[in-house]
Each structure stands twice: as structure tokens, then as C-alpha cells.
């Protein structure tokens, strides 16, 4: 298939592009390469895909990979640029669009909400319109476990009410789900929203807990342990995320067990909780260094625990994430040591 992946220089986007290319698809990766975190890491990910930094820095021009020929291409473009996006869809026909392009980070959304509205709402609307007029067969997009807000019922089910977000980031992700539902209903556009649960792994973002913890521990600095360590997360390893995504992308909606359901939401998580203290223990074990823990109160916009019910994902796509936290953390530590 010919597949558009937005956010291709991002953590999840890079890994997905790599898997789709290996599976024989032609991939056009799109990213605006903003400076929310070190752009050097984003360019380094693209270089793993065969796109040089000099190629990737060219605005609104498609570059082909040196590793994969015409199978992997890249365009530097912002989703909020409606004209540029229209031109991209006029010049290319996409079977599937996978939207991972978004302003990430719960805490940053408290400081700069406008960035989230432009990227996650305006940009997503632009993409929906292009999919609608471009006869795209399936739009797969990233939602987030943050939409569950202060939900106390665990594990979190896609059937739960999620109309009380506690961060602007979560609100924009819920808006994506509502917008997708409307387009599926009005224009018969098949859409699949994926609520990711605390994704981690090699090439991860520098603002995420695992990266911050490993970086601080190796430098002998204390780590910030929020809510005094009384937190739990459904940590999901990157390979499990992209494995589920590629299966959904490669399976026509009509051939999955969801059949005629054009609009669908799935949780992608490891289907178990890990205490934050146990997570830190796994990091210490992988590094062979004991952490200096600075216990702090919970931050605004944060939640105490997450836990994914993945029964619908298993039922419709016969897919179950299952990477143990010890293995995933070790893989990240090995990458971190190699990269730095």
C-alpha cells in the first residue's frame, strides 16, 4: 500500500515507518520537526530511515530514502498548513493515512495551549478534509490514555465515559475522536483511534519519564518521583505499539471482526499496572546504579494510575501487547548507552 505517516520524525512515527517499510509498503513520512525537544534526535531518527538531515530540512519537498529508494519518502510540512497538505494529496494517492503528528506532552500543554489547538485540532481537521476528498480507505490516528482523566474505574475501557479531561492535551485528543466520529458518520470514512498507554522504548522522547530517569541516574543526579511514588502506569513497549498499529493498518476494516463499524476506538496497553517504584527498580537493575529519589507532590494535569482494557483489540485483531517491563527497560538502556 501507499501510506502517509504524519509525525514521522517522532518517537512512535519513526518506529512505525521502519516496520511498514520492512513489510513492503511505500511510505511517505511527514513532520514539521518543531523544537519542542532536541531536533537533533528527530533528524537522527530520520537518518535511520535513510533520509539525510539536508534532505529533511527542505520545506515542502518530498525526499526519497537512500536506504529504501522510492519506498520511503519524507516531506517537511506542518499539518496546520492547509494549502501544503492539499498539494500533497493532489500529487499523491494514499490508501491509508496514519496520524501521529501532534504536539505532545501533558505538562507543556499547561504552559502553551495554543500550540496544541493548532497542531492537534486545526491540523487534524485539515487531515480529515484531505482524507475525505482524497478517497483514503482508512484513517488511523493516535489518541491517548489521557482522555480517561480522573476515571477511577480500572482497567480503563473504551466504553467508559471520557468527557472530563484534566489537561488541554487530553482535551485535544478527545476532540480528535469526536471529529473522526463525525467524518465516519457523514462521509463513510473508516477511522480508527488508538489510545496509547505510556509508550516507552529506544529512541524515546527526552521529556518522558524513562529518558529523564536514565539520564539523571547516569549523571548522578536525583530523579523527581511525583506523588511521592504512589503512582502506577500501564507501560507499553514500542514494539507492542507498532505491532498493533501495523496489524490494524494492513487489515482492511471489512476483513476485521469489527466489519461494518467505520468508527472505532481501541486501547493499546500492556493490560497490567506497574508501580512507579517498581519501574524505577527495573531501571536501577538495568543500569547497575541506585537512584537518588527526590519525592515530590503530584503535578497538575497528571493522574495517579492508568490501566488498559485491551479486550476489543484482542477480539477484533487478535493482537495482545505483552512485553515485560524488564525487557523493555533494558532495550532502552542499551539504546541510550549506544546513542550517547
TrEMBL record:
Pfam families, per the entry: Epimerase (PF01370)
InterPro entries: Epimerase_deHydtase, NAD(P)-bd_dom_sf
Keywords, alphabetical: NAD
Location of the NAD-dependent epimerase/dehydratase domain: 3-269
Entry keyword Mitochondrion: no
Alphabetical list of Gene3D superfamilies matching this protein: NAD(P)-binding Rossmann-like Domain
This protein's name: NAD-dependent epimerase
